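Record 1 of the preview.
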Amino acid sequence: MIIRERTGVVVLGGAVVLAIAVATFFKSGGAKKKEKFPWDHAWVDRDWAAIQQDTLRVLVLRDPLSWEERPKAVSGLEFELIERFANQQDIPLKAIPVDHPDSMLLALQQGRGDVIAAQFTTGGQREKWVSLSRPYHMVRPMLAQLREDPLPNKDGTIAETDTILLSAWSPFSDAFDRIRTKGVHLGTDATPEELLMQVLIGTVRSAVVTDAHASHEARRFPAIEFSEIEGPEKELCFAVRKNSPVLRKKLDAWIAAPEEKELRSALIGAYMERFPKAGALRRRSMVVDPDSISPYDDAFRKNGAGAGFEWQLLVAMAWKETRFDSSLVSTQGAHGILQFMPGTAARFGLDSTKAVADHIRAAKRYVGRLDTLWMRAVPDRGQRLRFVLASYNAGPGHIIDAQRLAERLGLDPKLWEHNVERAVQLLAKPRYYTQEGMRNGYCRGEQVFHYVRDVTAIYTQLLASTGKASSKRTKPKPEEGTTVVDPPDSNLRSALPKR
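->
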């Protein structure tokens, strides 16, 4: 009897537990408990009144279209737009860079920032968590990949995959299934800019970016080709907390103001540039006739050979620099047929009154010095010529920086094509030229890229000619940036990598 009573108690207790469990199950909808995110609600009560008494804190992405820090200055399209808004409202502004999309949402809800300016867009579940301003710009998707290259790449630095990467930061991240290109893969936390740089150095085959990114970066990275792909247009907006309605109202009124629309259009246009033509990388050549290469053939033949190169090298350089116009003076003061800067010209005893032959002899000596400078670091003569030409164009300091950067990126520091020529393009971006060990700052790497390729192609063409070939006379066209810099000082050689 006692045993039966105990059994009954156990059965009754089990039934109660089961009933509680069933009730809990149905109360939760009979399904898995809804997932929650720490950024799905505001943690602070902070709107316009509190911001006015403090600082407008803008959460930004490290990206030229969001926010970019450089020595003694900051830039970035969205930051500059919000800066205009803050100035009009007479409120101090502070940029808060964030490294992950989820961290940015959390920082907003926690009150560490008041506005998100990170190529934010409408659509997706993010609209459940934050409030979006009026759109300030429209973007569409484009494909970024390396151009077809007439120069073979034998070192295998290109990623062997057909996967097209899409950043989690991308305005198209919630709509990648509507991008009509096979192989698009979402999931990388790399920013769109970082993906683009990975395409450049060859660790990623191709990536989806916005047309805004493409037009901003196309000139700086001539090795990358941008092509249109089918996909949705997206509206770019700023995001605020849902409990900041007054801040959003202020932003919307500012965005909608007619005078701001005009100014905003001009600012956006300043960040965008005309797309270069699609297709393979160009291979420069000269149009020749059988009589003479230049008006100064005798001077080149007599004074231009040395340091292991033929006189046609200086012909190719002079054609690239000035199209043989010895009277040309650049906006930076470079003069002469080979465009010596004033300081460098003085070191070689040159001035505007000197004959072309004097300029040719000075250029030969300078090229010889550069060849000696690079001899240990780049033993191969053919490759060393590329480093010499790059140094002539941009200065040896920038090319030393590019060589160091190439090694950090897993590229070969002794090879120019497909390796150091990619790294030198990155020296146009603050995130690279401000790294530790980068001693010479900003460099217009796209000019170096074209200069080396153009001069070596023309030099090869001239060597293959009969020696009496020449270019047909055309009106000289100065090319910006193709100037001779100061000769290497004594400590540059020691800075060269010994590997």
